[in-house]
Structure formats: C-alpha cells, structure tokens
C-alpha cells in the first residue's frame, strides 16, 4: 500500500508536466518550493527535476552506497523535525521512506544505481493549498 502511494504520487507529479512544453527553470523553481526544508545527501548531483501543478520530484545521484544514504536520511529527517512515518527496505535494495513535517508529506526512494556503483534517489514533495511556501 505504501509503495502504491509513492508510485501514485510520482506518476501524478510527472503527469502534471506537459510533454514538449517543459520549462526546466520553472520546474526547478517549483521543486525548490515543494522541497523546501529538505536536504540532499552531501555531494549529490541532480539527474532530473520534474514538477506538476502540486508536486515535484528531484532525482539525484551519489557515489555512496544506498545503505549509507538511507542511514543519513533517517538521521537527518529526525534532526530536522521530520516525522518518519514509514521506512520500508525491499529485497532488491530499494528503500522507500515517507515523512511528514507540519502537515507536508515527503517521499524518499533510495536505490542502487543501475550499471554503476553508488545510489540514485528521488525526493518527492508537494505544495499544499494555502501553503505559505508558495
């Protein structure tokens, strides 16, 4: 059920992007609002940004192994007042986390990078109606 919610939100975020009419600068601005207060793992590189009307997804990479990235997020979310609501490690090495802060949801999906060492992870955040970060 949790994986379905994460998948659904990711699909909705991407569906909101109009193919062929993407404005990368606008998507990055919206993603910075939707993910306000969320930290990226140190020395990560942005691989992709996608944003819709209410949600944004940022995909990042790091040469560090997934277990270290997951442990860092567990600690960092806690230290930054995010309530970790679910933390689901899967058999294939993927870890899916769901956190909340002041009514704002955040999904973090951490997975081994395909074909190379390191980690690829996504951060999905939303801008709630009436949210002061707009």
Describe this structure in words.
This protein is an alpha+beta fold. Helices cover 29% and strands 34% of the residues. It has one domain. A hairpin with a 5-residue loop joins strand 3 and strand 4.
What is the topological layout?
Layout: H1 2-15, H2 24-34, E1 45-51, E2 55-62, H3 66-79, E3 83-89, E4 95-101, E5 104-112, E6 119-126
Antiparallel strand pairs: 1-2, 2-6, 3-4, 4-5, 5-6
Our estimate of the beta-strand percent is 25-35%
Low-confidence segments, ≥5 residues, pLDDT <50?
Answer: 1-19
Q: Within the largest sheet, what's the order of strands?
A: 1-2-6-5-4-3
Distance between the termini: 30 Å
**Roughly what percent helix?**
25-40%
What order do the SSEs take from the amino end to the carboxyl end, as H and E? HHEEHEEEE
How many strands appear in the DSSP assignment?
A: 6
Rg estimate, integer Å: 14 Å
- The biggest beta sheet, please? 6 strands, antiparallel
**Rough shape?**
globular
What's the structural domain tally?
A: 1
Q: Structural class, from helix and strand content?
A: alpha+beta
| Annotation field: number of helices | 3
Primary descriptors:
disordered N terminus; single chain; 134 residues; 3 helices; globular; 6-stranded antiparallel β-sheet; 34% strand; alpha+beta
């Amino acid at each position: 059920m949790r994986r379905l919610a994460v998948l659904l939100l990711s699909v909705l975020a991407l569906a909101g992007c109009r193919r062929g009419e993407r404005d990368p600068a606008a998507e990055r601005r919206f993603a910075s609002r939707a993910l306000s207060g969320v930290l990226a793992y140190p020395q990560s590189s942005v691989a992709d940004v996608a944003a819709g009307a209410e949600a944004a997804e940022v995909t990042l990479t790091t040469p560090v192994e997934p277990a270290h990235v997951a442990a860092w997020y567990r600690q960092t979310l806690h230290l930054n007042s995010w309530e970790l609501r679910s933390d689901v490690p899967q058999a294939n090495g993927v870890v899916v986390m769901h956190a909340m802060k002041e009514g704002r949801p955040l999904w973090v999906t951490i997975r081994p990078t395909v074909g190379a060492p390191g980690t690829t992870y996504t951060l999905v955040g939303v801008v709630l109606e009436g949210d002061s970060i707009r």
